[in-house]
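Per reviewer request, we include the raw input and output of the structure prediction for the construct analysed in the revised manuscript.
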Amino acid sequence: MLGDDRFLQLALINGLGIAGIVVWHLQGISRPTGRLMVQMLFFIGMSLVFYVGHIAPYQSDSIYTQGFAALVSKSARILWWTHLAWTIIGVIHIYVRLNRKPREAHLIQDMAIAVIYLGVALSVVGFVFEVPIGTLVTTSGVVAIILGLALQNTLGDVFSGIALTLGRAYAIGDWVQLSDGTEGRVTETNWRSTNLLTAAHDVVVLPNSVLARQGVTNRSRPDETHQIALSVRVAATQRPRRVEEIMWSVLQASSRIVKNPPPVVVLKTIDAIAIEVELHFRVDSLAIGTLAKNEIVDLLYDKCRTSGLPLAFPAESLVFLPTFGTAGLSSDEQLPDAAAKV
């Protein structure tokens, strides 16, 4: 009689496990919360039947060792371990969704899911089928070493991707620049590589191991604003203070730059011919950096013309002549002492 009750309990566990799988699939992938609830309810039901029947799912059956009853006993334990894995994985998915983790967190999810499945598989092999885990792990370790040597580059990309994800150097949508000059917006990260969409609308696929060895500048943090520096040389015909006022009015007239924090005018150098000025201003994003720079150049041209402030020749276009070269020229023919234009 006791054996019949135990068999019915094992059959009930099998029924609950199969029903849970069917209902889980009927929920669909669009209802992750519903799927988790189904997994938890059926797992709790199976666990209660194990508990009431004083049956340990983590031990092999000592009563039913052969025949159809043994098959029912083993399948009940396999289904329990499977539902345990699915319940834990469902909790992880819901946690990530509720906390609005970035899309690259799927690397950590995949890693955790792989560990869970591996642990459940070893548990089933050891507890249900009574296979020595130590021997299996030793054999698996030898195989893992062989695979590791064969897949060295691929594994390097995988672990580099995990390190980059944990370090959170960038996220999906960030604009990054590498030390080799490559720059673009991060569109996708996976186990092996990271994809960048460049300004030329090309997709650059970078292996994670290559990316981990380079310096990465994230231009989207702490925000999307970006500073641009523009140098200009004006003739030294007016006082530096007046030059600064003219440059400041140019920046104030621009409609494409950010006014907070305010732009800055830097008077870098001055000589007998020109004053070199550097304009520092911010834009909302790199996407409008070129447009903003073009607008500033156009405003500079107009403002310098209306203010009587001529632009100076570049320093490299000036040739300095020795003073003795003008000894034989008349006063009208002599060149300026400072420089002569090429």
